[in-house]
Amino acid sequence: MPRPCVPIRPKIYRELGLRLAEANSLDMLGRVTFATAQYAQAAFRQVGDRQAQAEALAALGALALDTVGLAEARAYYDQALHLAREVRSPIDGAHALVGTARCAQRAGDRPAALAAAEQALAGYERSGAAETARTREYCAILRSLPSDTPVRSDASLGKLP
Questions:
Q1: At what angle do helices 50-66 and 19-47 cross, to 10 degrees?
Q2: Which of 43, 109, 132, 147 is the most buried (most CB within 10 A)?
Q3: What's the Cα-to-Cα distance from 46 to each of 43, 53, 58, 149, rounded to whole Å?
Q4: Residues near 86 by Cβ (< 8 Å), separated by ≥ 6?
Q5: What is the DSSP letter of 37?
Q6: For residues 79-118, b (16+ Cβ closer than 10 Å) or e, as one string?
Q7: How far apart are CA 126 and CA 82, in angstroms?
Q8: In whole angstroms, what is the distance from residue 65 CA to residue 103 CA?
Q9: Phi and psi (nearest 5°) for 18?
Q10: Continuous segment of H or E residues that includes residue 44
C-alpha cells in the first residue's frame, strides 16, 4: 500500500493532545519543504532550465513569506520575476508579481502592493490564466482601501491568488 503524500504524524499528535510534538513535527516538515524547494531550484539552475528555476524561486518566495521572512521572500520573488522575464513567461512573471504584491501588502505598502498586483493581472489576462479572476478581486480589494491604510495580513483580504 502506498504511503500517503500528506504527513500524518502532526495529525496523530494533535488527536492525542500532544501539542508540543505536533508543533515540532510541523516545524520539521516546514524546514524539509523549504530545503527541498531550495534543492530543486539549485538543480534547475544546474541543468539550465530557467523557466523551472523561475517557478521554483516563486515557490520559495511563497514558503519564505510564511516562514523565514519578508526580505527573503521578496528576494526570491525578485529573482523569479527576473528569470520569468528572461524566458518570456508571462504566467511565471505574474506569479512572481503576485508574490511581490503580497510582500508589499504585508510590509504595509498598499500602493506598491496594488501596482504589483495590477501588473500581475495584466500578465494573467494576456495569458488567459485561471488566476485572472482571483487577481482581479485582489486588485479590487486593494483599490477599495484608502492609500494610507496599511494591510498587513492576508486574512484581512480573504483568499489571495
A1: 160
A2: 132
A3: 5, 10, 17, 43
A4: 50
A5: H
A6: bbbebbeeeebbbbbbbbbbbbbbbbbbbebbeebbbbbb
A7: 18
A8: 7
A9: -95, 75
A10: helix 19-47
Alpha helix ranges (H) inside 48-131: 50-66, 70-86, 90-106, 110-127
Q: Which residue has the cell 498598499?
A: 110
10 vs 134: CA distance, rounded Å: 31
Which pLDDT tens digits describe the chain residue by residue (161 residues)? 344 444 557 677 777 787 777 776 666 666 667 777 776 777 777 788 888 889 989 988 998 888 778 999 999 999 999 999 999 999 999 999 999 999 999 998 999 999 999 999 999 999 999 999 999 999 999 999 876 666 665 544 555 55
Cα separations in angstroms, 116 against 24, 39, 82, 110, 142: 35, 28, 14, 10, 11
